[in-house]
Each structure stands twice: as C-alpha cells, then as structure tokens.
Amino acid sequence: MGKTTDLTRREVIQGVAATAALTAAGQGVLAQDGRAWDTIVVGAGVFGAWTAWHLRRGGQRVLLLDASGPANARASSGGESRMTRTIYGADDVYTRMAWESLEDWRWLSSRSGLPVFHATGVLMFFGKREPFVDQSIDAHKRLGLRLDVLDRAEMQRRYPQIAWDGVEVGLFEPELGVLMARRAVQTLVKEYVAAGGEYRLASVAPPGDGATLDGVRTSADETLRAERYVFACGPWLPKVFPSLLGSRIFPTRQEVFFFAPESGDQRFAPPHLPGWADFNDGDIYYGMPDLEARGFKIAHDAHGERFDPDSGDRRATEAGLSKVRTYLAKRFPLLASRPLVESRVCQYENSANGDLVIDRHPKWPNVLIVGAGSGHGFKHGPAVGRYASDLVTGKRDKPEPRLTLASKGDVQHREVH
Ligand SMILES: Cc1cc2nc3c(=O)[nH]c(=O)nc-3n(C[C@H](O)[C@H](O)[C@H](O)COP(=O)(O)OP(=O)(O)OC[C@H]3O[C@@H](n4cnc5c(N)ncnc54)[C@H](O)[C@@H]3O)c2cc1C
After folding, report:
1. Average of per-residue pLDDT across 285-311
2. What confidence tier does 4 reach under pLDDT thresholds 50, 70, 90?
3. Which of 117, 227, 274, 300 is the most buried (most CB within 10 A)?
4. Is any ligand 1 atom within 6 A of the Cβ of residue 46?
5. Residue 249 backbone class (left: φ over 0; alpha: ψ -120 to 50; beta: rest)
6. What are the residues facing 358 on neighbouring strands?
7. Distance CA 76, CA 316 (A)
8. Does any ligand 1 atom lie closer than 6 A to the CB of residue 203?
9. DSSP state, 59?
10. Residue nearest to ligand 1 atom 38, measured at CA
11. Highest mean pLDDT among 14-23, 179-188, 202-211
C-alpha cells in the first residue's frame, strides 16, 4: 500500500489545484456528464472516511454523507479508543493491512493537534503456547515485522502490576498501540474537506431493488447522483440492504468499562502498561492503559446479543460490570475495586467468520459495499479505504475471495481474532 508522506501531501494539494473547476467554482458543479460527483460515499465512519480520503487524493470529485455525523455516538467508530495490532495468527491478510495502515495513522496523528495514535505497544498473552501464537510468529517472520516473544518471568518483570497466574507466553509489539477513534475519524474528515472533498449531513434511504442504481435519495428528499456509490454504513448495512445483508451481518451488543486507578498511580498508564489482550483460553478480555486520563479501559470480547444500532439500549448492565470486576480481581487485582468512571455500549457488525467485506453489489457494478468490521476493523481503516478506492477506480479488478460477499455465510462462527 502507498504512503502518505509530506511529498504525497504536496501532490494532493497540487491534485486539488488541477481540478480547478471544483475548487474555483465551488463543490457540486455539474460536469459534462451531468453528474456533480464521481463517487458518493455513504457513511463517515472509519471505512467511509478513509475511502473518501483516498478517492479524493486520487483526484475524484467525492461527496461523503453521514446520517448523524462522522464517528457519531451510535457509530462503531464513535468510541474513545481502538487497539491497533498486527498479531492475527495465520490471517496475515490482516497483519499486512494493520501494518500498512500504521504510517497513515501516524500521518493523521501529526495533523490532529492532540494525538490520534499512542504508541503504547501491544501485549497479547496466552495460557499456553497455542497454534495462534506460532502462526503469529511465523507471519511476522515472513513479513519481516518485529514481534517479541516474552515468557512469564519477563512479563512479571516488566509488568508487576498484573497477576500472571496461568499465563505461559506473551507476544509484544512495541511499535503498535492505541488509536483515538472518534478524534481520528473527525480529523480525517476535516483533512478530506480541506483537500477539496465535500461532506454533508444526510441520511440516505435504502436504495430498493431496481435494475440499476443511478442516484441516492436523502431524508431531505433530494436525489444525489454520481457515477459510483460506496456504502460504508457499518452496523446499519443490514437495514440499507436487507435482502442482501440482513442475514450476513450480525450487529451485536458490546459493553466497555473504564476504571479510575488510584490518584497518582502511574502503573496503569503508558509507558508502564501497553494495550493488552488476554486470550484466556478463548474467553478473551482486552483493554487499554489509562490514556489521556480517561481511565483504564476493559472489555470482554465475547459477542453480545443482537443489537439495533438505532434503538438499542446503551446502558451497560450490572451483569457485564460484575463479570469484568471478577476478571479484574484475577488479573488486575489493584483495579478490582476501583471506581467505574465511564461505561459505553457499542456494537460489533460481525460477518459470519469475522472477515471484512469489500465487494461490489452483485446486481449493481457501480456500487461497492464496505463493512463487517467485526470488532477488529478500526485499525485497518487506511488500508481498507485504499483497497475500496482501488476497486472504485478500477485500479484493482476484484477483491480477494475472503473479502467478497459470496464468501460470507449466514451462521455466526467466529474465526478471525
Ligand atoms: C466496543 C468496540 C471495541 C472495538 N475495538 C476495536 C479495536 O480495539 N481495534 C479495532 O481495530 N477495531 C475495534 N472495533 C471495531 C471497529 O470500531 C469497527 O470495525 C469500525 O469502527 C467500523 O467502522 P465502519 O466505518 O464500518 O462503521 P461506523 O463507524 O458505524 O460508520 C458507519 C456510518 O454510516 C452512517 N450511516 C449508516 N446508515 C446511513 C445512511 N442510511 N445514510 C447515511 N449515513 C449512514 C452512520 O451514521 C455511521 O456514521 C471495536 C468496536 C467496538 C464496538
């Protein structure tokens, strides 16, 4: 994947200048084909925003729409923080995507005032040396990426604030870390607009079932037309395309908790604690250090019940809190009784096995569907946006099989972690 260096930033600006009609006469100017935009992107979460950015960077006239605003409170990208890691077992398609995205995240971080990316490092630890561990090590060797294998004594030495009972091995990635999710998406949309892209707050009606798609209808009763359309509607995709995606994307309810360490206790803040995930015999818990004084974050990675992103109840449950406190007592005993300072309910939008979707609509070749982040998509945003943009512009002919709609089943059986 390409890199967003200072030079390419200059090229972006030159590219914008070259499309003089756009910048001089204002956005939405009709071209000879009678359309105002080359591509309309519906959904300004992490996937839609990076897709719009890459299309704009390629010189396209792009309109980005969102029903409730970039990284809004109900969007999957609307949370405080998201981990970025390259440890994916044998699924090195995601190792590559996460790694290739890192430079773009660093670039965005350099643009945002407050950081988008905190290089906290990421530690994953395991009760035993299971195949996932060796597959991850192999993938990192194959791709020439650094991955430190730590035994229990070393983890105990580095992180004495964690209780290491029952843990055999850890994988540590010093260069990865945590992304500030809402800030990232909102900064990117600002950058996209500054580079000549157009953004509007508008809800798009489900496109129906016609023979072609040559316009999208908004809640303001307008029809907006472009040559191509990208739908990156996250957990709303099953509502936008009910017959195609209603049984292929499963939004689930996920609870996230933040706890306040004791005042002045730095042991749970960077650099003393990295982002972490405990494989815990498959019953995964993960979390972030106390970043920007928001508290130590923890979540249980099991899929919750089915969830409606519009109307679902976003209050965390006592049962969820109690489960997390029980886990804390075992692994982070110093935090087990600390005050809860925030809780959030978000949703994963899972495909059957956890693979992302980046594919053309089966009936409408001018429509691309991007989504199914499945609880791990955020980190891949820059790479997904580039991939989607290449499919839109024809630079890439077709998606690889595991990203296609055809590969998506309708029974949940999670394989990607
Ligand atoms: C609790 C939690 C923890 C997670 N942790 C991680 C992590 O640590 N690392 C990681 O990499 N990933 C993580 N993820 C996954 C990641 O956040 C998601 O995969 C990603 O944010 C999905 O982005 P998206 O752009 O597909 O969807 P969204 O962010 O939901 O964006 C979709 C957008 O489309 C808009 N929209 C929908 N319908 C319409 C319409 N009809 N018209 C106009 N606009 C519309 C919505 O308003 C929304 O803004 C986590 C997710 C959750 C919920």
Report:
1. 96
2. very low
3. 274
4. yes
5. beta
6. 370
7. 16
8. yes
9. T
10. 233
11. 179-188
125 lines ligand 1 (CB under 6 A): no
| pLDDT above 60 (res 29) | no
Q: Is 232 in the pocket of ligand 1 (CB under 6 A)?
A: yes
Ligand 1 pocket residue status of 371, Cβ below 6 Å: yes
In total, the chain counts a number of residues equal to: 417
Site to probe by mutation for ligand 1, drawn from 201, 230, 236 as the one with most ligand atoms within 8 Å of Cβ, is 236
**181 CB contacts (<8 Å, ≥6 apart)?**
46, 71, 77, 78, 79, 80, 81, 82, 378
- Nearest C-alpha to atom 51 of ligand 1 is from which residue? 375
Q: Domains in the chain, ordered, with CATH?
A: 119-177+250-348 (3.30.9.10)
Of 411, 401, 356, the C-alpha closest to 94 is 356
Of 47, 74, 76, 188, the residue with max ligand 1 atoms within 8 A of its CB, to mutate for a pocket test, comes to: 76
Ligand 1, atom 26, residue with closest C-alpha: 234
Angle subtended at Cα 311 by Cα 309 and Cα 316, rounded to the nearest 5 degrees = 80
Query: Which H/E stretch holds residue 272?
Result: none
Q: What does DSSP assign to residue 195? A: T
211-222 exposure pattern, b = at least 16 Cβ within 10 A, e = fewer: eebeebbbeeee
Tokens standing for 412?
């949940």
pLDDT at residue 19 is higher than 80: no
The number of the ligand 1 atom at minimal distance from the alpha carbon of 309 is: 30
Residue 250 to residues 253, 374, 378, Cα–Cα distance (Å) = 10, 9, 17
- Please provide the distance, in angstroms rounded to a whole number, between the alpha carbons at the two ends of the chain: 23
